[in-house]
Amino acid sequence: MADYPTSFDRDDLLKCARGELFGPGNAQLPEPPMLMMDRITDISGDGGLHGKGHVVAEFDITPDLWFFGCHFPGNPIMPGCLGLDGLWQLTGFNLGWRGWQGRGYALGVGEVKLTGMVRPDRRMLTYKVDFTKALQTRRLTMGVADGVVEADGEVIYIVKDMKVALSES
Q1: Is residue 5 one of the residues assigned to a domain?
Q2: Name one Pfam family in it (predicted).
Q3: Which of 36, 72, 73, 86 has the fewest CB neighbours in a 10 Å radius?
Q4: Is 50 considered catalytic here?
């Protein structure tokens, strides 16, 4: 494991978005407004439900977030794909946090269940990513993980078999 802290504030996440945290050409988060978290509260390479690594992060919900005005006018809801993207972002972040090299790419997801919505009256999303596999070979660097998104403590998304790879090309 690389020698990074186990929690990160918004300034740290913005450094990652600029390529300053893991170095040029390595795992990078998107910049706002596509950055889907405000802080990472815990991260590991050997914790979580399966002992293969985990990430826990939070995203503060405010009524003025960019997506509420356009999705949908008069019925504002955060697009479900943004919650999934937040989970993918965190999966790739964990691979970079491990010190593994390359740029992150979402490869797919096995199953997504949306059981609730994020409306402007919600206060906070909590993302929980639990790795089922993390591997690095000469040809492949990849993480496979399950994820949960909670809105104010209520589970609203359940995701199985997210796949993110790092590539140096």
Answers
A1: no
A2: FabA
A3: 73
A4: no
